[in-house]
Amino acid sequence: MSGFNPNYDPSGAHLALKPPRSNGPLLVAALAVAGAGGGAYYMHQQRDHARNDAATATQRAQTAEGAKEELAQKVEKLESEKVELAKEKEELSKDVEAKAGEISVLKGTYDKLEEKMKDEIDKGDIKLSQSGGKLRVDMVDKILFDSGEAVISKRGEGVLARVGAVLSTMDDKQIQVSGHTDSNPISDKLTQQFPTNWELSVARAVNVVRFLQEKANVPPKNLTATGYGQYHPIASNKSTAGRARNRRIEILLTPSLAPKAMAKSKLKAAEEEAAQAKADTPAAKPKLETASAKTKTKPEATTAKAKPAKAKQAKSSSSKHHR
What we know:
Elements: H1 13-17, H2 24-116, H3 118-123, E1 126-131, E2 134-140, H4 154-167, E3 173-180, H5 197-214, E4 223-227, H6 240-246, E5 248-255, H7 264-280, E6 302-305
Parallel strand pairs: 3-4
Antiparallel strand pairs: 1-2, 2-5, 3-5, 4-6
Helix pairs in contact: 2-4, 4-5
């Protein structure tokens, strides 16, 4: 019988018929494990990215909040400054308005004086000028005093009476009366009464102030008498005409405006600065001062405030002098 195999063992036939074992499940399992690991890594990465994004967003939110607060502070500061500026603007407007009113009043005074002193102005004995809110009346000495005298003459009393009639209506003005001389020294006959031109210029100014107070009813609190001697000339002392112009009485009118109020912030800063400066300044040692009468050697004004008490005018020798 063909195909017969005498060595054939039927018991092993099932082994020959069993299919070979497959590696697919292992591969699938390996792939599953790898996929799970990759997914876990991916999720871990995503969590890190999410955390970083959250931290960045939180930081940005905090920065934005800080910027918002800073902006709110700036806005509050600007609003405060706006209020301060509005107050200062209002005060400045009032100050400008007040000054405009003062200048208008001075212009009215100028017109009144020009009308009352027309003759003296036409002759050149009186000169009026107005600038910067100030009104100046220049009067040559000969219309008020006799030569070498500090006592007001009869003619001078008439002139000052007309000037005083205008000044007496101005209660809110500062009125400075200043005496001036030429550079010629005092004559020997008058040196006992007026050692220098200082004394002569002061005596004349004081007598004018007293006349304005006592005879013309000008408020004494507004009056000041000042002597400049020969040190404020308006012309050359080398000529007779120049010396005549320098021998004069000047009446200066200035507004009496209250000082402008400072803003609180500026006032506080000024106080702190003053306190710091005081703290930085070493304590000064007390010094004993000895009062002594000295003749002035430099061009400084000698000033005397008007006193209400009445007294006789200073009289000089009847000797005639170039003044």
